[in-house]
Design goal:
30% helix; seven-stranded antiparallel beta sheet
């Protein structure tokens, strides 16, 4: 089957266009200019940008297998950019001729070998072998109908085993062993570990296909840059991530992954990424001492120095005094806490501190000098306290605190759009955005401070009534928070804090009263009384507050947790579920979707907004939506294709929200459609306490 990239509809392999939405199933859309190109073309024929789907292939093969396929010639490689269909099987990595080689596959040296090459996916809309295996593991369906070539011969007989047993059998028997750590660690370390697309072993060849990251900048390049010196707390964050990865990779004998500087890269948000995993050399016994030497190399090659506490840590690692991951974590935590408690601080990475020097001979590196071993009294006390607790048995190694580095806003972007839909003759939705953002630049990095307000309302009450109610609610709330929060802090609320529950409730009640008073003045009654739903988000730096009434929703998307619905609809069905009724029974009621709360129809005694707070502790996308966008689980269904890409700084947020509204018009369209998208980027902060 062919999975449509636009709507995810499953089409027969013979289709040229999606049966559901009409999207081409034979061409890629260029991400730069939007023109269509055949799947077997690497570069766009209009603008020259990369439009093909490219994977990094890790190939392990025996000596005999390698000699069976001679390297490609330069002429055969050149044909890859013009869509030549007359290639031989030696131009492909697989016998199904799906993965086209973009460079010669080198001959292996010795009895066995491992090489990496880039390949072009000539059938990117078809499920990969690995994806089909995982489907088999989840539902137990027979693979005979869809197993490509002879790969199915490696499938185990799953019989009546449980789902977990099926998955375990498949992972252990049906794919190469080197694919297993990618699968096992990918969910926990979703940013660091490259996504695995496909994996198989057949005859003498093992292949793993990965997300291609060669375009990601090298960590050492940013570390060396004189124009983009990373704050020391950012450096600590990278070091801590390496420690976490070191521990996770140890059971898989892949710590060598972290010891290759060219393998350490950064994504667009400067998060640590690995280009691929490397297996340890046979017989190699790696320790934290090796990781410490890598850190020494990073500092040495960057020709930058570090604070005393980091230098002391490097010295202890080199001397073999730090041998446990828990101890190394605690040392990094203590340094981070020291930095927090001694604000403000200078640009610590550029201090004139000459203890650490690049040297060709190991004996020339004076890591144990007096100045290098001096840590601040606060750091020494912190470490002594930890050691004392460990000695007394009061602190189990598994209960060591996990460092949570203070975060700051790095970037904040928002867009709001509304659409009348396909069936209504007027739009009763209304939204408002009030932003107050300041940016501070210093040697320790960029700091963003924000007091932003986002409001979305879905009105009701017939022609003119609904749109009046939604606009009145938004305007009332904007004026309230502009006066008592954004311009002047509310009495009793500090300038660096969000309004509390009482103030948020007061604001919502004012909006309710404004609409209720109009209803009373116009003697509206019954269904003629206008009203509106409300979902509202306030952002104060890295903290957020949410208030909502009705069935307009807030969603949150992060790489770690995916799509989450933050609010719970105020409707009869949800009320019954909260009373203990089974969901199937609750939503079988004819009034299941009737609102239990709204602004305007009734007085303040009947309006009780739900209010909650959460930290913006990781990059996330916030999505405020009216029910025209959320009906029929539209966002849950298309989260992977239409929401996940919006988390990337390189994506156009305005265009992405427009595509969401187009999607809602295709699948819902019966109501007005409104969305506010807020893209939040955060970084470790040196200015957290300022």
């Amino acid at each position: 089957m062919l999975v449509c990239p636009q709507c995810q509809f499953e089409n027969p392999v013979t289709n040229n266009f999606c049966q559901e939405c009409g999207t081409s199933l034979t061409q890629n859309s260029c991400p730069t200019c939007g023109s269509l190109n055949p799947f077997d073309v690497v570069n766009c024929q209009e603008c020259g940008a990369v439009s093909g789907v490219i994977w990094l292939a890790i190939v392990t093969a025996s000596h005999s297998m390698a000699k069976a396929a001679p390297p490609m010639t330069e002429a055969s490689i050149a044909t890859l950019t013009v869509g030549d269909h007359s290639k031989s099987i030696n131009d492909y990595l697989d016998e199904e001729q799906r993965y086209q080689l973009l460079e010669p596959l080198p001959w292996f040296e010795g009895e066995t070998g491992e090489q990496q090459v880039r390949v072009l996916d000539c059938q990117p809309l078809q499920l990969s072998w690995l994806e089909m295996l995982m489907m088999q593991g989840q539902d137990g369906s027979a693979p005979d109908a869809w197993a490509p070539g002879e790969k199915a011969s490696v499938l185990p007989d799953l019989g009546n085993s449980t789902r977990n047993e099926r998955l375990e059998s498949i992972i252990s028997l049906a794919i190469p062993s080197f694919a297993q750590p990618y699968l096992a660690l990918g969910e926990q370390f979703y940013q660091a570990i490259p996504a695995i697309h496909d994996a198989w072993h057949y005859k003498d060849q093992d292949v793993v296909l990965l997300e291609e990251r060669s375009h990601f900048p090298l960590l050492i390049d940013l570390w060396q840059s004189t124009e983009m010196t990373p704050p020391v707390l950012q450096v600590l964050h990278w070091l801590y991530e390496m420690v976490e990865l070191w521990q996770a990779l140890a059971p898989w004998n892949c710590q060598q992954t972290l010891l290759d500087i060219s393998n350490l890269r950064l994504d667009e948000d400067q998060a640590l990424c690995l280009q691929r995993l490397h297996r340890n050399r046979p017989g190699a016994a790696l320790s934290l001492q090796d990781l410490g030497r890598l850190w020494q190399t990073l500092f040495a090659e960057s020709q930058k120095t570090q604070i005393d506490a980091i230098t002391s840590l490097l010295a202890d690692l080199d001397a073999g005094k730090v041998t446990q991951v828990e101890e190394l974590r605690s040392r990094l935590e203590a340094i981070a806490n020291q930095l927090e408690d001694n604000q403000p601080m200078p640009d610590l990475l550029d201090q004139e501190f000459d203890t650490f020097q690049t040297a060709e001979a190991e004996d020339d590196v004076e890591l144990g000098s007096t100045s290098a071993s001096i840590a601040t009294t606060r750091l020494e006390l912190a470490l002594d306290d930890i050691d004392e607790l460990e000695d007394d048995g009061d602190l189990d190694s598994d209960e060591m605190p996990t460092v949570v580095l203070p975060m700051q806003l790095f970037a904040l972007e928002e867009i709001g759009r509304t659409d009348i839909g396909q069936q209504r003759d007027h739009n009763e939705d209304y939204f408002g955005i009030e932003t107050q953002v300041s940016k501070l630049e210093s040697p320790s990095g960029k700091t963003l401070h924000a007091r932003n307000l986002y409001i979305l309302c879905d009105g009701m009450g017939g022609h003119a009534g609904g749109e009046v109610a939604s606009a009145l609610a938004v305007d009332t709330l904007r004026r309230f928070f502009k006066e008592y929060w954004q311009n002047t802090p509310f009495p009793g609320v500090g300038s660096n804090k969000l309004p509390n529950v009482e103030i948020l409730s007061q604001a919502v009640q004012l909006a309710n009263k404004a609409i209720y008073d109009v209803n009373q003045q116009n003697a509206r009654s019954g269904s003629g009384r206008m009203g509106t739903t409300l979902v509202m988000v306030l952002i104060q730096d890295t903290e957020a507050a949410v208030a909502h009434v009705g069935d307009s929703r807030l969603y949150r998307y992060t790489r770690k947790r995916g799509l989450e619905q933050v609010t719970v609809d105020h409707e009869v069905g949800q009320r019954e579920i909260q009373r203990g009724v089974e969901p199937e029974v609750a939503y079988a009621r004819p009034d299941a979707y009737q609102l239990t709360q709204a602004l305007g129809p009734r007085d303040e005694q009947f309006v009780k907004p739900d209010i909650q707070f959460f930290e913006l502790s990781e990059d996330m996308l916030l999505l405020l939506c009216s029910d025209g966008l959320t009906d029929n689980e539209l966002l849950e269904t298309y989260a992977k294709t239409h929401i996940e890409p919006l988390l990337s700084s390189q994506s156009n947020l305005d265009k992405g929200v427009g595509q969401l509204i187009e999607l809602a018009n295709q699948h819902n369209g019966h109501d007005n459609i409104t969305a506010i998208a807020v893209r939040v980027k955060v970084r470790p902060s040196l200015n957290h306490l300022r």
